[in-house]
Amino acid sequence: MSEKKRRRGEAGPSATGKKSRPSSRADELRKQLKSDADILESVRRMSAASKSSTSKTLTLSDLNLSSACREVSDRDASSVLLSIERAALDAARSILSGSGFSFDIPSRSSSNQLYVPELDRIVLREKTSARIFANLSTVRKATITARVLSLVYAVLRRNIHVTKRDLFYTDVKLFQDQSHSDAVLDDVSCMLGCTRSSLHVVASEKGVVVGRLIFYDDGDRIDCTKMGIGGKAIPPNIDRVGDLESDALFILLVEKDAAFMRLAEDRFYNRFPCIIVTAKGQPDVATRLFLKRMKTELKLPVLALVDSDPYGLKILSVYMCGSKNMSYDSSNLTTPDIKWLGIRPSDLDKYQVPEQCRLPMTDQDVKAGKDLLEEDFVKRNEGWVKELEMMVKTRQKAEIQALSSFGFQYLSEVYLPLKIQQQDWL
Amino acid sequence: MSEKKRRRGEAGPSATGKKSRPSSRADELRKQLKSDADILESVRRMSAASKSSTSKTLTLSDLNLSSACREVSDRDASSVLLSIERAALDAARSILSGSGFSFDIPSRSSSNQLYVPELDRIVLREKTSARIFANLSTVRKATITARVLSLVYAVLRRNIHVTKRDLFYTDVKLFQDQSHSDAVLDDVSCMLGCTRSSLHVVASEKGVVVGRLIFYDDGDRIDCTKMGIGGKAIPPNIDRVGDLESDALFILLVEKDAAFMRLAEDRFYNRFPCIIVTAKGQPDVATRLFLKRMKTELKLPVLALVDSDPYGLKILSVYMCGSKNMSYDSSNLTTPDIKWLGIRPSDLDKYQVPEQCRLPMTDQDVKAGKDLLEEDFVKRNEGWVKELEMMVKTRQKAEIQALSSFGFQYLSEVYLPLKIQQQDWL
C-alpha cells in the first residue's frame, strides 16, 4: 500500500502562468511550504493524539441517562431476529391473557427529543405510546407494524438487503403511501432498539472513497489506493463492510466531487497519507455510516474541506450532529469531532482569493448563516463562531473551486499542504 | 474471474410467503424457468451474433457525408496540443498578413444540425462563422476563445483533468458567467474536431459498474467481480480507462440504483455472466462514454432495464441518440443498438403486476409518451411503438421495484432469467 504512484505536474507557476497580483500572492504562499516530511510532522502529532486518545466516546450510560433516554445500536441479524420473535411472542401472550393485541412504540416527536451537550447529539427520551389493534384510530398502524415486522423478518432470514421502496411495494394495498411504511420502519427500529441498517433496509449510496484504506466489501478485498481516479463506490450495506486497515494519518472529508477528482488524480494520498471521501453534496446515510465506521475503527482525525458558505457548514453539521428526524439513530450516524480545515471565510483574504471569484451572499444565505450561529454545534466552538460572524458580516461566500484561479492544482499543491503545515484547522 | 460466489437465498416462494393471486402467477412463471445453462443458450446466441457482426459502425465518410457534415473524435493529448499550436500559428499568420485576428467557429445552432437515419444520430452540418477580434460584436467571444485555448493547452501539457467549473474560475473577470466559458469550450471542441474529453475537461461521474469486467483506471487494475455490493465508481476521465476484458455475454443497463443493488447483492453476474451498469437516473456523460466504450470494445449486446414510463424511455433515448446540445459529440456518446428488456407496458399484464403497484399516468406523462411516439428512435422500432401506444392507452406506469410485490428477489430470480430465456427484448 505504500507503493508510490507517479505524481503529475510539478510545483511550479500556476497553470495560467499570468503574473497578476493574486498569482504573486499564490507564489509567495507556495514559497512558505516546507518539505513534505516537515509538513507531515504536524499532522502526525494530531494523528497520534487521536489514536492514543483514551477519552472513549461517551455513551448514555456513562451519563446515567440510559434509563431516561433511548438509543439504538448496530446489531447482527440473528439478534434482531430474536427480538422480532420476542415481540411476536409478547403480542401472542397479551392476546391469550385477554389484554388484546398492541405494540409499545417509542415516540419520535420533537417533544420527545433531547440534545445532550456531553454527547453533542440528539437522543430520544423514554416516552412511548400503545399502538392498539382493537382501536379504530390505531388499528391501521398496528397492522402496518405487524406487516413490517414480518417483512423485515423475511429479509433478515434470507440475509439480503432491500430499500425502503422495495418494502413499500410488497404491500401497496396496505401501506397505500411509501411515507406510511417508512414511518413505521423507523418505529420498528426504535422499538427493537437497533439501527435501520441492522434491519437490512438500506439507502442508496452516492459516496466514493479513495486513498490509504483497505477494507472488505461483502468479502471482496478493496484497496482504495488502487481504485484509479474514479474511486470506490461506498457500499450501501455497512454491515457487509469489514476489516478496515489503514496507514493514513487523517481522513479528508470533501464536500464536492470536483475537488475529490482533483485530489484523486493528483494521488494526493501518496504524498500525504490520507483517506479521501465525499458524498458529492448532501451526505447520504451510507457515507455517514462509512465515515463514522472509519473514524471509530481507525481512530483518525477528520479534516473537512467544504465551500465557504452556510450550506457547506450545514453539510458539516449533518455529519457531526445528524438530522432531527433520525435522532434515535444518531450515535451510529454522527462523527462529532470534525475539524473545519477550509475553505473558511478568513481564507478568502489570507489566500487573497480574487474579488471576482467570491460570490455575494443572498439574503437567504445571510439568514441561514445567522441561524447557524444559534446552533449548539457552532456555539461550542469559538473559532467557528468567529468565522461564521465574518461570513455574515462580509456577505461573501466562495466555492472550493475558487482556488482554481491560482492554477488548477493549487488546491493539492499549495492550499492543502500549507493548511496542514500550519495546522490551520478549527 | 469465473470464480463462483455464493448466491444468497434460494429460488423458493416469495419472501412474503402469502398465497394471494399475484403470488400464484409469480409461482407459475417461476416454474417456466429452464436450467441456467438452457437460459444462457438464448443469450449466448445473441452475444455471438453481436461479436461476429461484420456490420461495422457506419461513419460519416461511409455515407459520403464527411465533407458536408462535421463530427468530432477522441484524440490523444499530443495531437490536440498540435492542433492548438496550429490554430495559434494560423492566427499569427493571419495577423501578419494584415487580415486580422479571427477564429473560424462551427455553428452549433439547431439549423446546423442534421439527423442521419443511417447513423441514427444527430450530427452538425458544415456551417461556420468568423469570430473576429476587431469587431465590437465578437471581440469578447474571440478573447474568451483565445483564453480557453490557452487554458486547455496548459491542462493538456500538465496531463491533468479539470472540470468546467475549474476552467471558469481561472478567469472569472473575463468569463463573467460559467455559461460563457462552457459554450466556448464546446466551440473549441468543434473547432479542433475533438471530443470534450479529449480536451481533458471532464464531467463529474455518478455511475457505477459491477460484474464480469476487468479494466484499468489510471493504471490500476479493476476487477468488477471483486467490487462487493457497492461496485466501482465509473471514472470521469475516460481517456485513462483502458484494456477492457470480459467474459460476459451481455451488458445489463439499469436505470436505478435500487435495482442495481439487488443484482449486485445477488451476484446476478455469476449466474448469468454480464456487466451491470447504472447512472442512477439521468445518464451523465462519463457513464455514457463508458457504456459506449464497453459496447465498442467488447462487442456485447446491451439490454436495458428501466421503469415502464415515458421517463424510462427518455433515459434510453439519451443513451441511444444523445441530447441535442451535444450533437457534435454524438458518435462518442451514443450507443445506438440497445434492446428494451423491461419493464415494458406489456409486462404489467404478462407478469400480473397487482393493480395497486401500478401508478396512474398524469396528463403530463401521457403528453410525454405521445411526444416520444413522434421521435425517430421510437418510430423505427415497431415493437417500441406498440408498447408505447399501450402505455399511453392504458395510462398506467410502473417502476422496476413494483416487482418486489412478488418477493424481494423476484427481479433477479424470476423476472430477468425468464426474460432472457424467452429472448423477450425489443
Automatic annotation (TrEMBL), chains A, B:
InterPro entries: Spo11/TopoVI_A, Spo11/TopoVI_A_N, Spo11/TopoVI_A_sf, Topo_VI_alpha, TopoVI_A, TOPRIM_Topo6A/Spo11, WH-like_DNA-bd_sf. GO terms for cellular component: DNA topoisomerase type II (double strand cut, ATP-hydrolyzing) complex; nuclear chromosome. The keyword Methyltransferase does not apply. It is an enzyme of class 5 (isomerase). Residues 140-201 form the Spo11/DNA topoisomerase VI subunit A N-terminal domain. Transmembrane segments: none annotated. Keywords: DNA-binding, Isomerase, Magnesium, Metal-binding, Nucleotide-binding, Nucleus, Topoisomerase. It catalyses: ATP-dependent breakage, passage and rejoining of double-stranded DNA. Its main location: nucleus. Gene3D superfamilies: 3.40.1360.10, Winged helix-like DNA-binding domain superfamily/Winged helix DNA-binding domain. GO terms for molecular function: ATP binding; DNA binding; DNA topoisomerase type II (double strand cut, ATP-hydrolyzing) activity; magnesium ion binding. Mg(2+) binds at residues 255, 307. Residues 250-420 form the Topoisomerase 6 subunit A/Spo11 TOPRIM domain. Its cofactor is Mg(2+). It is found in: Nucleus. Belongs to the TOP6A family. Homodimer. Heterotetramer of two TOP6A and two TOP6B subunits. HAMAP family: Top6A. This is DNA topoisomerase 6 subunit A. It comes from Dendrobium chrysotoxum. The gene is TOP6A.
